[in-house]
Amino acid sequence: MMVGIVALAGTARAELDACPGQDVSIAGDSSMVLGPYDTSTATDDVLSYGGNCTHLNVGGRDHIFHVVPEASGTLSLRTGFDAAQGDEAFCNEGTCWSDFMCPPGCWTKILYVRSTCSASTPAEAAVTEIACNWDPTFTKYVTADLSIQVTAGADYFVVVDAPNNNANGFAAGPYYLEASLTTP
After folding, report:
1. How far apart are CA 76 and CA 68, in angstroms?
2. Residue 7 maps to a domain
């Protein structure tokens, strides 16, 4: 599998903050790491429902990727790692929750995939959501990963989000996104 850090040329970072998001095409049996990105200056856009796996209808600052696979297969997504692809620093009550200030990269990431970009209500967001992942137990909540079956040429909207929109550090920050597509 081919792996490399990719910064997509000619793509303004502002595209990450609104539908339809940053265009990403991924070939079969390949892997890419996108980034670095930072949601600190992003807004909570129309996808503001935080992913159904959170059971929260409050969204945080988010980024959107419009992913179109070139082949059918399994799309695996992961966030919550550093430039060397090692896990980010473990966040715990002592580093974040006591004063709501977290070390860089130590913020609660939610990763979800939808079949459409815009959702104007929580019910609409629920219907279009394909998968969602975060760690509600907060045991290691800097990471999020998921895998879904995809169809070649179909549109998938991948969102890196947070469970709230406060500016105290644990709701936004830097990240990389890894995407890999494995074909049967």
Report:
1. 13
2. no
Decide if 9 is inside a domain.
no
Cβ neighbourhood burial of 35 (10 Å; 0-12, 13-18, 19+): buried
Range of the domain at 158: 15-84+95-182
CB 179 within 8 A of CB 26: yes
Distance spanning both ends of the chain, measured CA to CA: 14
Write out pLDDT tens, residues 111-120: 889 998 877 7
41 domain residue, yes or no:
yes
Backbone φ, ψ for residue 89 (5° rounding): -55, 140
Beta strands in the chain (DSSP E): 5-6, 22-26, 30-38, 63-69, 73-79, 110-114, 129-133, 144-150, 156-161, 174-182
pLDDT of residue 36: 84
CATH number at residue 36: 2.60.120.380
Lookup result for tokens 């975060």: 134
Distance CA 2, CA 23 (A): 19
Token readout for 68 is 């179109």
